[in-house]
Amino acid sequence: MKKKNLLYIVCALAMISLCGCDDFLDKDPQDKQTNDTYWQNETSLRTYAQDFYSSYFKGYGTDYTVFAGYFSGDDYTDDFINLNNANTNGAGYIYFPTSSTTDWNSRTETWSNNYGIIYKANVMIEKIPDMNISDEAKRHWEGIARYFRAMAYSELAKYYGGVPYYDKVTDPSDEDLYKDRDSYLLIAQKILEDFQYALDNVRTDDTKLQVNKYVVGAYMSRELLYHATWLKYHGTSVGPGSQQVSNDDIKNLLQGAINGAETVMNSGKYSIGNTYNALFTTDDLADNPEIIWYREYTSGLTMNALMSYNGPENQTQGGVTQDVINAYLCSDGLPIGQSPLYKGKDDPSIKNSFQNRDPRLYQTITDTLRIMSAIGTKYAKGGTSPTGYPTKKFLNEEWFAADSPYCQNRQSPADAPCIRYAEVLLNYVEARYEIAQVGGSAFVQKDLDESINKLRGRQLTKFQETESKTMPTVSLNGNGLSVNGTVIDDPARDKSVNPILWEIRRERRIELIMEGRRGEDLRRWAKFEYLNSEDANGNPSMSFLGAYVDMKDYPGMSSKDDAGNRVLYLFDPNNPGNEDSEKGYIHYLREKGLRVFKAGDLNSERYYLRAIPTSQLTIYENKGKVLTQNPGW
Question: Euclidean distance between the first and final Cα of the chain, in Å?
Answer without folding.
Answer: 51
